[in-house]
Amino acid sequence: RVTFASQQDYFTDENRVLRKDPQQDYHLEYAMENGTHTILAFSRELHTCDTNDRSITESTVRVIWAYHHHDMGEAGHNYHGANRGTRSLRLLHPEPQEASSASLPYFDLTNQDVPVPDKDTTYWCQMFRIPVQQQKHHVTKVEPLIQKGHENLVHHILLYQCSSSLNGSLLGAGHECYHPNMPDAFLTCETVLFAWAIGGQGFTYPPHVGLSIGTAADPQFVLMEVHYDNPSYAEGLTDSSGLRLIYTPVLRQYDAGVIEAGLWVSLFHNIPPGMPEFVSEGHCTRECLTEALGAERPAGIHVFAVLLHAHLAGRAIRMRHFRQGAEQKLLAHDEEFDFNFQEFQYLTEERTILP
């Protein structure tokens, strides 16, 4: 039993003491309870002008929840004990329109018992052949297949398109990426087809877009790069994580691709010591875009989703967009970036990037 009438606006002070907010901004819309769940739906202005409230923006918000098994009595709230948790969300971002993919074919690209070294960071590269050939298909969804218990070990996965001139001798031959002994053929895999990062769920392409596979121009060989994060230097770990690609023979209107911008991992990316904050900038210049798009896509490309990616030092990310010297609306941004919650942001309206 829940006393719904006691639903009120509270806040905590710096000593974690719960206090009733003199400005009541939360309004109960409905409430219901069954044998397993209590559901409360409430509304609030995005910006309440109340110093005890946080504004709700397009950035990541960490929602904290706690409950007690008994209703609030005259003495006030009961301490929640272990019934508490937190979750990062983007409250204002649209959900993708997802059709059922249960009946669609799929194939998996997964590592097989990769030995994860007892060191802080490892990049592991594995070559695969795309099994769908002779006819064009569209990938409609990509799902991460993270080995149970390794949710914090697998930090991100990148899928690169490789040269079509490669032979199958390198299939199944995994190797530590960017290592002196890495096969030279791995260096031909430069074009990113897909990216997934920690905390992310599966990625669903919009109904009119798909990742093309099966034609002569599409990748026959791909390189999957898995970044393992092992800060505790745990020994004896083996991993079999990877990706599942769901596809359809029913073609969509547009082919999908990936464009990368920002700062690459390198020794030249330094944050000065002792700085409370520091802005790093990477530029995708007009000359670069003209070379990439000028001949092939003179009318530009249409951005429908953005993945903002950083590591533990990242606090906020902005993807800025300029045209002929004038700044456009931000493509994507997150002023409260959470390292453990890296999801694609689906844009409410597609944005055109011109050469």
TrEMBL record:
Alphabetized GO MF terms: copper ion binding; dopamine beta-monooxygenase activity
Necessary cofactors: Cu(2+)
Keyword set includes Membrane: yes
Annotated membrane topology: Single-pass membrane protein
Gene Ontology BP terms: dopamine catabolic process; norepinephrine biosynthetic process; octopamine biosynthetic process
Protein localization: Endomembrane system
Residue stretches making up the DOMON domain: 1-68
Keyword Thylakoid: no
Gene3D superfamilies: 2.60.120.230, Copper type II, ascorbate-dependent monooxygenase, N-terminal domain
Source domain of life: Eukaryota
PROSITE patterns the UniProt entry points to: DOMON
Signal sequence range: none
SUPFAM superfamilies noted in UniProt: PHM/PNGase F
Record-linked InterPro entries: Cu2_ascorb_mOase-like_C (IPR014784), Cu2_ascorb_mOase_N (IPR000323), Cu2_ascorb_mOase_N_sf (IPR036939), Cu2_monoox_C (IPR024548), DBH-like (IPR000945), DOH_DOMON (IPR045266), DOMON_domain (IPR005018), PHM/PNGase_F_dom_sf (IPR008977)
Key words of the record: Disulfide bond, Glycoprotein, Membrane, Metal-binding, Monooxygenase, Oxidoreductase, Transmembrane, Transmembrane helix
GO CC terms, sorted: extracellular space; secretory granule membrane
Family that this chain belongs to: Belongs to the copper type II ascorbate-dependent monooxygenase family.
Identification of the protein by name: MOXD1 protein
Gene: Moxd1
